[in-house]
């Protein structure tokens, strides 16, 4: 990590280059805070300038040379100056020296930290900027005194003056990936980006500190930061320089905000002297922001808080936190957030004695999916004699923190009292949840089914039945799952959480069975009731997302997937380390990217899902299956096979309901390895199983995978009364009338067009796929049309190849069997000849370039035309661009 790759800042770099190379030749100065990337941007811009056109002098001003006349330009001017010249004469002499050395080229003077220039140097820079054949570019640091000649550069309209803003989150993520040599987990990148506030220098020090303390770890190729920050000396020195020396009063202000941010301005004024608050704001240590109807105070930079909190003595830390809690309790906890803030301050200050307060705060933290904080508060509530309620909550949270063994111990240590049915009900359901999903004990289903007889209350029985139903769903006992769920919905006494959990179970089954409209209605009902169930059962969100995500994937609704990946739950789950939530959403995101042909993003995101879910078996197999699909899309057979092996190893038996996705991925991996017959056999067996299970929603997609392998005429299913079997195309036509949505009829049209060898219909289907952003399907259908047109020697093949090239141009690397089947097999020499010919090279030029005879080149071209189905060079460019993995653009 000695030198960081230059990433991002594209607009700023282009603006700098335009300022130098444009017709006007007006200069440009960037200003910004220390470490924001001004110097690196200037160096990269200057390095990109051609030295045959520009005479470039780079100057790094410093405090050392600021007191010496022309000290800032000591790297530019001759060591000996003429004697007896007036100050103006010296300036003219210096300008003449630069012009002589430029030898007719345009002068470019690049000054880093121009605010540190001595007065004569600053005057010379101003004089150079006025010259017709010169441009001045440079950097300035915010908050520094700027020499008047430099300030006059933009007031006299000689240069532009631009404030360099912090790097965007996307740029920060790309920079992290570049320096670490691989992608970074989205949550880790976001936290590091926010902590550095988009400052590359601070980001570098954060990564150095994290790497040095082994807090950055790589899993499945994805870097993940634990979140624990080590304050390395370099990082501390940087912050000390920015903060400077503080009076006791100002330090108290900064410390209060460090421990309480966002802190209401009215509370800060009660806790500290008003003049100290104003001084802290004037010095840029704190900032006052308006949020809703509150005026809050935050630290000007997140790292200020890290340093202040680490350096504050324990006794003063506890006193400040207790004081903050007292202040907020005195004015009243007016907002929902206030309860959580008081509880955390009480806990951290050692003054937490109210178990009810801690328990309520733990519930609130869990409803925000902040697993680490909820764990702390729930454990504190249990230790403060919170009883079985605290034990139940803590065990639940530990389950979602991938610590099921500890969760069981907590539950068994506080069993419900005899005769207390409400507590028994909750204890049974939480223990069953931990046992089934956390410990993968299949016998749990029968155990919870038998335990319901211990309960007499209808609401309690409904809650247990709702849990049993979703377990049976995941175990693939769908008929019983639906029956139990319907019983829960039919009971007026059933609680809201139990009813919506049951409705989520039914919604999933409806989606799998192809009743996508009814599934959507049920999902909307669960979502609309969220305010009534989230406090009681926050993890119900997972059941909702599983049903909703399954429905969206089966309907091909990529925009819907984008929406749920971007909604509040995704943000909360990422912030709070709720891994099952973030992992599943990453699987959905990878699926959407794959369908759009964004293979790089799909593989990267699926690897991220594998990394997040590595310690949990609930969705681990599903994540590996999506990774296999993403690798297969790229033609990476080795990685696809490795991912399927991991999927088989990590897939939990209790998640059997996910088998359609895994088996489709298995077929994709086989096809990527070249075993198309094996893939077709795998899909045929999957179709039979899905038909037997009644999963028509999944069956249409397995059948369509056969169409993608050009197996639309393959017989599938049982023997019919006429002694024959339905073909893939016929079965899809049947299902298109039963399965909801616009996608099944489109898949059926694709199958019919492939079975009847209709290029026109295939191209029409491709257009409809493209309208839905299903770009991979669109490209494959177009490729199938190209194959048929080529066999028919149709002149329409040229237009079809152009359309295929356009679709492939919207994708990253994709190499599926459907695309490869239509790709002509050219030898390496033929590829070389074809690329050069596509670029307009004559036969003679090609012969000279490749050391061949002109006759040999002509023979190669004739074979190429035949293989590509083109009649001459005019069609060659489109033909090459329509071949996956080749864009025709590399003539070398």
UniProtKB/TrEMBL annotation:
Gene3D superfamilies: Winged helix-like DNA-binding domain superfamily/Winged helix DNA-binding domain. Signal peptide: none annotated. Keywords: ATP-binding, Nucleotide-binding. PANTHER family: TESTICULAR SOLUBLE ADENYLYL CYCLASE, TRANSCRIPTIONAL ACTIVATOR DOMAIN. This is LuxR family transcriptional regulator. It comes from Micromonospora tarensis. The keyword Repeat does not apply. Residues 819-884 form the HTH luxR-type domain. The keyword Disulfide bond does not apply.
